Amino acid sequence: MKIFILSSLIIFCSFFSMNAQENLSHEKSTNYIVLTRKIPQLKPILITAEELKSENPSTFGKFEVVICGKTVKDLENPLAIESFLQQAEKLNVKIHACGFSLKKFKVDKTKLPAKLTIVENGILYNFKKQQEGYLSIEL
């Protein structure tokens, strides 16, 4: 009888141990999106992404930035954005330019760095990401 109780207890504990390990491996990741109107703000944004990733590497998900407004005119200058794009690539952060802003300020898309992606409407893109559960901030 003692063997039966002990065996049952071991099986019972093993079952709960496996469930706990399963739950830990399925932790929900947190995704982030930032809208910015100034290229120099990319520095603190990328520092923030790096800190969040180092604090919680197992739950750090995607991190995206959308550049919108008049500052998109500066994206044609590789010196203004290249170092940020390199750092973003190392951190696995995606940087996008707002297509509406590019049109409004007559930016030549062919002069933009290849690593920079264009989203048609930055504000709509942000809202859709929020609907997907992304945490969002606008600077």
Explain this structure.
By secondary structure, the protein is α/β, with parallel strands linked by helices. It has a single domain, classed as DsrEFH-like (Hypothetical Protein Ychn, Chain: A). It contains 5 helices and 5 strands; from the N terminus they run H-E-H-E-H-E-H-E-H-E. It has a 5-stranded parallel beta sheet with strand order 4-3-2-1-5, sandwiched between helices. Helix 2 links the parallel strand 1 and strand 2. Helix 2 packs parallel to helix 3.
How many individual β-strands? Answer: 5
Approximate shape: globular
By secondary-structure content and strand pairing, the structural class works out as alpha/beta
Uncertain stretches? 4-9, 12-24
**Fourth-level CATH superfamily:** DsrEFH-like
Average pLDDT, all residues: 86
Taking all Cα atoms into account, the compactness measure Rg is: 22 Å
Summed up, the domain count is: 1
- Name the helicity range: 40-55%
Essential attributes:
139 residues; globular; Hypothetical Protein Ychn, Chain: A; 49% helix; signal; 5 helices; Intracellular sulfur oxidation DsrE/DsrF family protein; 5-stranded parallel sheet; alpha/beta
